[in-house]
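Bug #77: duplicate submission created two jobs. Keeping one. Sequence:
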Amino acid sequence: MTDENLWLRRLAEDPNHSQWYVDRFRAMASEGADLAGEARLVDAMAPRGSRVLDAGCGSGRVGAALAAVGHEVVGVDLDPVLVAAAEQDHPGPRWLVGDLSRLDLSAEGISEGFDVIVSAGNVMAFVAPATRREVLRRLRGHLRDGGRVVIGFGSGRGYEFAEFLADVEAAELVPDLLLSTWDLRPFTDKSDFLVAVLRPAG
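Kept job's structure:
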């Protein structure tokens, strides 16, 4: 297993990968594809006007959908091309370039915590394995009291679900709910996707 950020490795192999990703989702949006499934789940968890952090926001589709229904959104992603696309396509939320393993939004003048932190799009499977627990700790540290973290990623990406749940425990988070899809289907030992709703332990 490599111990590097897999998104950065893809960019090293193909410098045009970020623009391909942006173009792909722009095309899907123009064709009327439903790109807001993750946002609907998060919206159902959060009172209107909640503070939401889109961790690994990519080109902004999840955070933008949440902002459109009245939430205050901040998005962070490692890739400046994706963040620039989010700023262009979805003005309103605050989009920032940043490494989740070093996340400290107070350095950006953002001192208030979040009601919900969402990390969709297989983000946790892309971060460097050595940083996974630190990413989870950093996310926990940005929650308001009573806040929750929602993380979704697929199997077969070098991050077993059991390993993830061990990392969750090590980061002093506990699962509130485990699902196999963003549309609320139960998680089982045969599921090939995990959506974990987490809260701080204790």
